[in-house]
């Protein structure tokens, strides 16, 4: 498997994991909400608070990963542009050096 295929597979696996986490959280939240609607208890309230924190944690984690990947991509693009500019400058420098040598003779 080449790098491009691995990245695509990794992205699909990450998406499936995210979907599974959000489905699980949604399921748990709906159960706790139904139970709270029936009879409110301290344990159910505590479970609800925990699920809210977990939901915010997973959302924040998902956002951090997405932003990290964007930053890495931006850094790679900037590096590649700098390399391309350096190569062009080297070619131009070589061209000018040859012109200078031909004029010196």
- Percent range for helical residues? over 70%
For the biggest sheet, the summary is: none
Q: What's the number of domains?
A: 1
Could you state the order of secondary-structure elements as H and E?
HH
| Mass-distribution shape | rod-shaped
Q: What is the gyration radius calculated from CA atoms?
A: 28 Å
Question: Which class do the helix and strand fractions yield?
Answer: mainly alpha
| Structure summary, number of beta strands | 0
Could you explain the architecture of this structure?
There is one protein chain. By secondary structure, the chain is mostly helical. It has one domain. 94% of the residues lie in helices and 0% in strands. Helix 1 runs antiparallel to helix 2 (42-104). The mean pLDDT is 90.
Features:
105 residues; mainly alpha; 2 helices; rod-shaped
Give a brief outline of the structure.
By secondary structure, the protein is mostly helical.
Write the layout of secondary structure elements.
Blueprint: H1 3-38, H2 42-104
Helix pairs in contact: 1-2
């Amino acid at each position: 498997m080449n790098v491009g295929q691995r990245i695509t597979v990794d992205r699909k696996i990450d998406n499936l994991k995210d979907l599974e986490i959000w489905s699980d959280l949604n399921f748990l939240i709906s159960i706790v909400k139904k139970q709270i609607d029936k009879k409110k208890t301290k344990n159910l309230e505590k479970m609800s608070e925990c699920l809210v924190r977990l939901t915010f944690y997973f959302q924040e984690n998902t956002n951090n990963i997405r932003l990290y990947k964007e930053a890495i991509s931006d850094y790679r693009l900037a590096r590649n542009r700098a390399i391309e500019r350096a190569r062009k400058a080297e070619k131009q420098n070589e061209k000018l050096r040859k012109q200078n040598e031909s004029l010196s003779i």
